[in-house]
Structure formats: structure tokens, C-alpha cells
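Hi there,

I know you've been waiting on this one. I reran it after we fixed the sequence typo, so this is the corrected version. Both the input and the resulting structure follow.
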Amino acid sequence: MTQWPMDPDETLLWQGAPRGDLVFGAEALAGAIPGGLLIAVATGVVVAFGDRLGDLAVPLIGGAVVVGAILTILFPLLDQQARRNTTYALTTKRAFIRQTGLRNRVEQDDTGWVLHDPDKIRLVTGPPDTIYFARRPTSGRKGGVAPPVGFDIGFRRIENGAALYQQMIGVATTNQTAR
């Protein structure tokens, strides 16, 4: 069991981790689009200059397909690795996320996220489920008026999220009345 920096009056209610399966979602588009473009350009070059390329046509297309495939699978593999190195915890006061390994999308936050507003906790049903409970701001553009930017913080791709969601609402409600 992972050790979490809890206060003496704080109790661990739940500890878990995201599912570690390989997912081809929106993140995969970040590599699939340039990979597909690379394959299309290589195919266009071979079609346009095939007679001049001679024996280089097949290696050119083959290399483009290999590099395109690597680009397409790279982001899902990195995401999978990050999820396999992530653990979550819910206490009577806070939610914790700890992520180690190659990629650190969420900074190591030893203070956790205090849950005190039930309206900010939202469940995205799956399966697997995701529960968002905070938003980490990122720097926006300089100058002018820009909408607030950031990314949602939460327990992503977990099993039985509905029960945990109810538990988190209870924690936030208790903390809200204790303020």
C-alpha cells in the first residue's frame, strides 16, 4: 500500500489505480495525423516519381509506413505507461494522485486536493469511469483577455466509479459544513 502524507485526524477511505490497458482515443490523433500525412506524402512521391525512383520506391513506402505506425502508437503507449505508474487515494479530507515513471502529467502534489465543494466533483461514466474534482490552471496567452485555461484533475479510468463518486460527494459535503 502506498504511503500518503495524511494529517493525524485523516483516514484513508479508498486507494486505487487507473486501468492500464492500451487506449486509442483522442491522444492517438496527435501521432496518427502526422503519421498518416507522412504515409500520404511518401505514396504521392512514389506515384509522381516512381519511374525515377526505381528500387527506392518500396523502401520509401515501407519506411514511411513504419514511421507512421510508430507515430500513431507512440502516444497511446506513453499514456498507458503513465497510467500504470499512477496511484490514487481518497481520504476523509483530500484526494491524492501520485504518478512516477516516464511521463508526469500531474505534478507530485504532496498536499493533495482538498474536497470541499460537491458541485465541482463530476462523474463521467464509462466503463471505465472517470471522476474529476479539480482544475489545474496553465498559463494562457500573454496580454488581452483570454478564457481561463487548464486541465481537469481526477481519478481517470477507474472501475466502479459511481460508488467512489458518492463517497467523494460525502467527503466534500462534510468538509464544506466543517469550514
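Quick highlight: Residues 18 and 175 are 26 Å apart (CA to CA).

Best,
R. S.
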